[in-house]
Design brief:
Elements (H helix, E strand, L loop, with lengths): L2 E5 L9 H18 L3 E4 L13 H11 L4 E4 L2 E2 L5 H14 L4 E6 L1 H11 L27 E3 L2 E3 L6 H4 L2 H9 L10 H13 L15 E6 L4 H8 L4 E4 L7 H11 L11 E9 L3 H8 L2 H9 L10 H6 L4 H12 L2 E3 L1 H15 L3 E5 L5 H15 L4
Parallel strand pairs: 1-2, 1-12, 2-3, 3-5, 4-5, 5-8, 8-9, 9-10, 10-11, 10-12
Antiparallel strand pairs: 6-7
Helix pairs in contact: 1-2, 1-15, 2-3, 3-7, 8-9, 11-13, 14-15
Length: about 375
């Protein structure tokens, strides 16, 4: 199977973190039976609607609940902890579930610190209001983006106003010890590799010699793509988070790629947001809350508990709101199994992806499980 899953352990409106985590364990078991290749857990902090704040802990629980599917992180934010602590955590899991663990690493924590440092100084406060909804709109207004061989590449989202929000600076200050300085991302990845291979002057136990598969995740052709390519590691590009730069990301990675012990040729996985149902009307109904959820993220409030379709219907959408979430709504694949599978094949063809990493969020857990089941059948020719 060339389809894998990214799970944020979403907390549904009216539910609890316990509900979300039990849903994750259930979905992982079902995903294994559907034939998915990997099951990755995200890392998010200060998000009322996301329970995956400690991926290593959740990976261990998912690995224990399943028997064959690869389980990993999508991604550990290396800027919040040291390479040694990450290798020890994943080495511990690998010791119990050898050959099944993926260590996906991202620099989003480091990038957030850079953005907040670049932004205008502001005193952190728990009570500060969020920036206006239009703060994240793409420069130049309602640009239409472009279509590349059938794949929509929307205009870039402008994160600068959101990055200046005092609440984000306050959150960043809580994710590290006071005065801590994050080393360069490339240096951190080199340390992770050295700890895993035993080439470091210190020894990680457990961790050294672990059979974990090391991945780099990135949203552009910047440092993450460069580091992954230059070190010959597999790379995950985010169409679902940053659809405007996915082609730049995979191109930058392939251009920088050098063969290694891990890989002789570049290997890419590309992510996508998906909702599948037996008919279009049901799929659209299930997908309704997504825009409201994205809005909560892009106004600086953090991902809210995932709304019901009725809650989504009750929201008044201003022009500013619509502009704020347009790129994410327009690049989500929603519909019947055959239609969505065909859209995903376009994504795979245009990006040259070796695998696709799909993430589905619905308020109803049974509908979410069904979406993954329908997609696996359509993708694998079983429908």
């Amino acid at each position: 199977m060339t389809l894998s899953i990214l799970d944020l352990a979403p907390i549904p409106s009216g539910g609890t973190a316990r509900d979300a985590l039990l849903n994750t364990l259930d979905l992982a078991r079902r995903a294994e039976s559907f034939g998915y290749r990997r099951y990755w857990l995200a890392e998010h902090h200060f998000a009322p609607g996301v329970a995956s704040s400690a991926p290593a802990v959740l990976i261990g629980l998912v690995a224990a609940a399943t028997g064959r599917i690869r389980v990993g992180s999508g991604a550990v934010q290396l800027g919040h902890q040291t390479p040694l602590s990450v290798v020890e955590q994943f080495g511990l899991i690998d010791a119990l579930y050898p050959g099944r663990i993926d260590l996906g690493i991202g620099r989003s924590g480091q990038r957030r610190a850079e953005l907040t440092a670049e932004a205008a100084p502001a005193k952190p406060s728990r009570g500060d209001p969020a920036p206006p909804a239009s703060a994240g709109a793409a420069p130049g207004g309602e640009a239409a983006g472009r279509v590349v061989d059938g794949l929509l590449i929307p205009p870039p989202f402008d994160w600068s106003r959101l990055a200046a929000h005092p609440q984000l600076a306050f959150h960043a200050s809580l994710l590290q010890q006071p005065g801590a300085q994050t080393p360069d991302f490339a240096e951190q990845i080199d340390d992770v590799i050295a700890f895993l291979t035993g080439d470091h002057q210190a020894h990680a136990v457990p961790g050294e010699g672990a059979e974990v598969e090391l991945w780099i995740l990135g949203s552009s052709g910047g440092q993450s793509a460069q580091v992954a390519g230059e070190r010959g590691l597999p790379f995950a590009a985010n169409y679902h988070v940053s659809p405007s730069s996915v082609l730049e990301a995979v191109e930058g990675y392939r251009k920088a790629f050098k063969p290694s012990k891990a890989l002789a040729e570049p290997y890419v996985i590309v992510s996508a947001d998906v909702v599948v149902a037996d008919d279009d009307a049901t799929a659209r109904e299930l997908a309704k809350p997504y825009g409201l959820w994205v809005r909560s993220i892009r106004t600086g409030a953090g991902a809210r508990t995932y709304p019901t379709p009725e809650e989504a219907d009750a929201h008044f959408w201003s022009a500013e709101d619509l502009a704020l979430v347009k790129d994410r709504i327009d690049t989500r694949f929603v519909g019947t199994p055959g239609a969505v599978a065909e859209q995903l094949r376009v994504l795979r063809r245009v990006t040259g992806a070796d695998e696709l990493l799909v993430t589905t969020i619905t308020h109803d857990h049974a509908a979410r499980v069904r979406s993954y089941e329908l997609l696996a059948d359509a993708w694998d020719g079983r429908a």
